[in-house]
Amino acid sequence: MRPASDSNLPGALPARDLRPNWARAAVLMELTWIAIVASLLMGGGGLLIFIWSVRSQQFKSFEDVKYQVFWSDPQEPAKMPAKEQQNGSSTKNK
Questions:
Q1: What CA–CA distance (Å, rounded) separates 94 from 88?
Q2: For residue 65, what is the DSSP state?
Q3: Cα–Cα distance between 91 and 85 in angstroms, integer?
Q4: What angle do CA 18, 20, 25 make, to 5 degrees?
Q5: Taking the CB of residue 5, how many other CB atoms lie within 10 A of it?
Q6: CB 15 within 8 A of CB 5
């Protein structure tokens, strides 16, 4: 039998779960196993991605990458036309 509570009334209590304790525990256990399986699958996926990255040498010369900007040859700045170099600014005939 359901307790007499109407959700429209102010201060009314929600209806009580009428399932027996063992049924509620079974639902919680089922959710726990789903969470365990999901976490194992995600962990296994992460492990597979890590193994792939090591085998394909994604971590090779990891330290050298941050110094590549210093090793690159500097590019020469764009040269201005001869007129603009003499005046120091660009002037056009009006």
A1: 18
A2: G
A3: 11
A4: 120
A5: 13
A6: yes
Residues 41 and 48: their CA atoms lie apart, in Å, by 10
| Domains in the chain: boundaries | 18-61
DSSP reduced 3-state for 58: coil
If the chain, 94 residues long, is cut into consecutive pieces of 10 residues, what is the mean pLDDT of each piece?
A: 56 70 83 96 97 89 74 66 60 53
> Quick one: tokens of 27?
């639902």
- C-alpha 20/C-alpha 65 separation (Å) is 62
pTM exceeding the 0.85 threshold for the entire prediction: no
CB neighbour burial string for 59-92, b if at least 16 within 10 angstroms, e if fewer: eeeeeeeeeeeeeeeeeeeeeeeeeeeeeeeeee
